[in-house]
Structures are given as C-alpha cells and as structure tokens.
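Sample intake sheet
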Amino acid sequence: MNWDEFAKWSKEIADWGARYHKTLRDRPVRAQTKPGDIAAQLSRTPPKEPEDMATILSDFDAIVMPGMTHWQHPRFFAYFPANATPPSILAEQLVNTVAAQCMLWQTSPAATEMEGVMIDWLRQALGLPDGMTGVIQDSASSATLSAVLTMRERATGFTSNRTGLSGQGQLRIYCSDQVHSSIDRACWVSGIGQDNLVKIKGTGPRFGMDARTLDAAIRSDLANGHIPAGIIAISGGTGVGGSDDLAPILAVARAHDLYTHVDAAWAGAAMICPEFRDRYWHGIAGFDSIVFNPHKWLGAQFDCSVQFLRDPTPQLNTLKIEPEYLKTTGESVTNYSEWTIPLGRRFRALKLWFLIRSYGLEGLQTRIRNHVMWAEELAEKIRALSGFEIVTEPMLSLFSFRCPGDDADQQRLVDAINDDGRIYLTQGAFEGRKVIRVQVGQFETTRQDVLMVRTVVEEIWRALK
C-alpha cells in the first residue's frame, strides 16, 4: 500500500466509523455468536499473494463484526465502560500515524512534556493537592503492580530487586475484601504471594474495611514476626462499588509507617464533580499513590490509566534502570519509562489533550452527574417490581439487584437478557449470593436508554416465569 492508497482507505474507514456509531442502537449489545464461529471463517494458512484492501474490509464486516461485543453501545451496562469519544479516537489516529516510541524525553519531547501537563490538568480537575505528580500507565493493573513493588522495596530497604525475597521474611499487604482481582495478581507477580495479602471484610453502608480491624491485623502480624509493607484502599470497587473511609485508614498507615495506594480506577473520574469528594475521597491527599482510569468513565479511548504520586522518588527507586544505551545527556529531563514497568510507551497524553479541550470539564461533569442521577432513578424503578430487591444501593452509578428465586434464577435472567440483545448486564456476587449488576457509564447513553433496563428486565422475567 502506498500513501495515496492509505489516504483513500483512511477516509473509507472514517466514514465506516461514523456509520457504525450512528447505528449502534440497532445492534445487539453483546456478540450473538457461539464459540468457534469466527475462527471457522478464517483461513488456516497465511496468504501467499497480496490481497485487495476492499476484500479485506468486506471480510471485516462479514466475519469480524458479528463477533464483536459493542462496548460503545449506549445500552452497555456491564462491567465498567471503556469509552471512546470522537476526539479521543481522532487523537489515537494521529498517534498511530506518527507511530512514535515515547520511552524517553529525547525520543519524543512533545509526548513527555504533554504528559506532565495533562497529569497536572487532571490533578486540578480532581482537587488533588499542589505538588502531586504522576505518570500515565496502560491500566490500573500496571499502576497497582508498580505501587505493590514499591511497597516491597521500601519494606526491604530497597534491596529485594538485587537480592530477591529469600530470607526477607513474610511481607504483608492489607486491603478490603472488595478489591479488584488486580490486587491479588500484583501480590502474585511481585513475589509477595497470595497468602500474604490480608483482606479485611468490608462493612457498613459502603462496604469499606474498618480501620480498627486493620490496625489489629497489622499489630498481630508484627507480633508474629511478619513485615507489614503497605495498605491498598479502594474507592468504587468493581463488584458493588465498595469504598473505604480513607482518612482513618491513612491514620493507621502513618502510625505504622506504611506505603499507601488507592485503587479508584472507575470512581476516580467522578471526583471531577466536587460534590462527590467529601463522601468518597476525604483524606485522599495524604495517600502515596492513587490510580484512576480516564479510559473508563471519562471518555479517553483505552488504554489510559493515570497514577498520581505524592512523591515519585520511592517508585523511581523501585523501577528505574539505566543501561548505557538509555542514558541521556544535557539538561535534566523526565523520562517516564523510569516510572513504569514497560520501557516502551505510547503517546497517551494526546487523547487526554483532545478530550478535555473538546468537552471542557463542565461537559464531562454533566455526563457523570447524569449517569449518577439516572442510575438512582433506575434503581427505584427496579425496586418497585414485584418480588425484586435492591441488594446494594447505588454507589455513584453502580448498584445490584435480585429477581425472585435462587441463584440459578439470577443467572437464568442475566443470560436471557443478554441473549435478547437490547441491553447488556453482568452477574456478580455479594455476601454469598448471586446478584445482577447494573453500571451506568457509557458516554453516549441517555435517560431513555437507562430506563429501558427496567422494561427489558420486566419483559424477560415475565417470559421466563
């Protein structure tokens, strides 16, 4: 393909993209194919001769698209959103075209300097304190792993990268039982181990860990010769939105000189609305590390996760490695590859620049406030259905419910709803019972789309009875 052909097909694909988004409501939200359907249509051997792009794109429509679940569908209420706003998509097209590897300042000065400014834009938007800095990661999983590795190094006097964990004693990480599985995985990968992740049962209206119970667990470990290394708090857990009361947890951490991290991957975006901060983020300014994902609720195309750091030095001391071929000379500059696990880095800051300038903070705030309001309205309408119960009340725009019957009935209803195709929900578990989970957050959803959940749930339930 030459560059004239590239220009032609780029226009074709842009037109296809506009048609796709305009017609999403006409498509089933979840792919309706069966396992193996797509693979059966793909050639088992690579082509020997070049193929025409028109043929390739035709096959894309015929083979690939029927097997796609539509994350940008306005009635996608499963998991958490992975929004892709038009300006974010355009920015990614530019990034893909320039195709820079932005590992060092000198390999793309604009990418590095824009990243620093975008981190600060978001710091201001979220009401975080002056002086807090950070880095753009690919996902919250990577940010959390970076924080756990920093906890490990700090607890071992920054020696375990060199000498390993043998003979270091049992390091312990503390969190609530509402945390995402990425926290478990970080303990696996870091060598700390699953058995040394101490989970405190979430209690109270927000299912957060009790600070006194946390303190007692740390004191017990100290008495048994273990080494407390860090505390991971959550704000808006994946299951039912569990959120820790941050200020008391921070007080416990400081009493024991422990490194702290907050997983606010989803809910952090809502903190651009000041009215949510006192409830969910009181005490946030004192935490060492905070992660939130603009690629979830804020509208930045995946992947784009921001990790804020009160002081980047401990993480740099954990992750920075500087072979001769990566050394830079001249004036002091920031090389963000020293702040993260991967060396290679994409130009992720550009889509934040496009996104925030295109919508403004007020436009983004309005969307989030609407999603929270519509979720609360929907919860009340489902509560009014005969025999239905709201199991966990709305945490921002996330809540869960149960239909009449046992756990098998919950799964039967979820499966039937998703086979119907008009909306997409997922099941979850809370206190030993299966629940049906609803999360409002797709960027283009409307109140009508959200309230359709009640209509579909009622219709499908009646058909199953």
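Comment: The longest strand covers residues 227-234. The mean pLDDT is 94.
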